[in-house]
Amino acid sequence: MIGSSLLACVLTIISLKAEGASVGITFLQDAATKGAVCLDGSPPAYHFDKGSGTGVNNWIVHMEGGGWCEDVATCLSRKKTDLGSSKLMVKQFGFSGLLSSQQKSNPDFYNWNRIKVRYCDGSSFTGDVEAVNPANNLFFRGNRIFEAIIADLLAKGMQNANNAILSGCSAGGLASILHCDRFRDLLPATTKVKCISDAGFFIHAKDVSGGQHIENFYSQVAKLHDSIKNLPASCTSRMGTRPELCFFPQYVVQTMQTPMFFINSAYDSWQIKNILAPSAADKAKAWKSCKLDLNKCTPAQLKVIQDFRDEFLLAINTTGVLNSSSGGMFIDSCYAHCQIGKQITWSSDTSPVVDNTKIAKAVGDWYYERSTIKKLDCPYPCNPTCPKVDSESGLDV
Fold first, then answer.
1. Would you state the pLDDT for residue 21?
2. Given the residues 85, 101, 170, 227, the one annotated as active site
3. Of 41, 114, 124, 322, which one is least surrounded by beta carbons within 10 A?
4. Which sign, positive or negative, has the C-alpha torsion 388, 65, 57, 327?
């Protein structure tokens, strides 16, 4: 008789194999000699599942998420995790969703070269500070990591790409926006290049106390990591004395040249917890239950959340994506954060549906230009296909 824990382990392994098995890690030791290193000075890393057949010259570079560190204390804490040190990263990673190698669940991209870039700099791959303070020995080199990994992939065959996608989730989804045009410029002019941001459209909004929590937070990140010089110049040149605001996609995307697709919830769980009602703006913890489960929100809180959705949609609208022939979007009403990294939300019997379309089909139709994709869900709680709980937990962030 198989024990329950052993059976669970076996089922997990079977599930992983069904989704494309585990993919080994590649450490870029040479990058470290150029100063392209994680917060602790260890080399950057990625997982690479090679393409085959018709996909051998097609590439997806997917950037991992995981928030940011805005001061020395938070970066030191991060340095002790896999989000600050490649020494602590798992050596095998199961590819799923957009990165799955299974044709049935990922018909448009299953045989592409698929890369998951590990995130260990805390700045959405934007930082570049030469000096290292011996008092904390922190390295702020996210931009160098991005450049080193792309250069390595180009040398491994991406310079021959017919098709290429830069994607990411959460902080990686923001990175896919901030680096999109540069990614386009690093590839041959003949390559069809597009970018995908999953839960990366963080909006410039006030919190429930009327404060500017997220604006102040990103300003700290930009200053600590010296990020401004690596934000898109097409944005920073327009922002006058506030170039750090180019951490917000609503100001960046307006001047982007490369086609972009946004997958986001209009009720993004991370944004509601950290932009709208961060703990610093909710000293009495009046929002604690509501943030865990929208069903527990008071009518007044739900009104605030619906207003936040309106603000999100307005921010998306300012980018011009609705009127763009090349841009696309899938904006659902699920209380979720990151939806392309797991099969359950990418393309399964229980995946969210908007306008009779799942995310996988929407992305494939947009990339291959089979149809115009501008999917906008009705307001919460109208969509019965949404997961019943916050799907931030356990998803690829």
1. 74
2. 170
3. 322
4. positive
